[in-house]
Specification:
Blueprint lengths: L2 E6 L5 H10 L6 E8 L3 E2 L2 E2 L2 E6 L3 H16 L2 E9 L1 E3 L4 E9 L2 H18 L2 E7 L2 E4 L4 H16 L4
Parallel strand pairs: 1-6
Antiparallel strand pairs: 2-8, 3-4, 5-7, 5-9, 6-8, 9-10
């Protein structure tokens, strides 16, 4: 199982991360990636910055557990997650999820699963700065619904 989780303040190269996933194994037939970007608007307010805090050690452990669940559900050659912390501005990259697999179906499903679980289970605290002042963000109900969909599939015996 090839899993790599990094929490960092500095930017990352999605191209470099994708190339490393491709090179991980001759069995890689698909690489699916997701890059999250800081928006300049949220809930109809302009956003000038986003500050992310985390609990060192606990956050990496939580994300590694999410990757392990993905490895158990799908046939994967690699999982790479980078999540940034600290002060970020609109347009900055905030998260990278890369999945390497022998087949596209496993790679697409696992990438979506990892992102859905990251949004609801990884311990990050996010504060936006807007013209009206600072506000702490909470997880959206739509994110919980998306993650619950994966749980429902497991409970009903459906394959993802």
């Amino acid at each position: 199982m090839n899993t790599d989780v990094t929490i960092q303040s500095e930017d990352f190269s999605a191209d470099r991360e994708c190339a490393e996933l491709r090179a991980a194994s001759r069995g890689v037939g698909a690489v699916v990636t997701f890059s999250g970007i800081v928006r300049d608007i949220n809930d109809d307010d302009s956003v000038s910055s986003l500050y992310l805090e985390h609990y060192p050690g606990m956050t990496e452990k939580s994300i590694t557990e999410i990757a392990e669940i993905a490895h158990a559900r799908w046939s994967l050659q690699g999982v790479r997650v980078i999540h940034r912390v600290g002060e970020l501005g609109p347009g900055d990259q905030i998260v990278f999820v890369g999945i390497a697999s022998g087949h596209r179906g496993d790679a697409f499903a696992a990438c979506q699963f990892v992102m859905d679980y990251l949004k609801t289970r990884a311990p990050f605290w996010k504060r936006e700065t807007t013209p009206a002042g600072d506000r702490w963000l909470t997880t959206r109900e739509t994110d919980f619904d998306a993650a619950k969909g994966w749980d429902d599939e497991t409970e009903t015996g459906k394959s993802a």
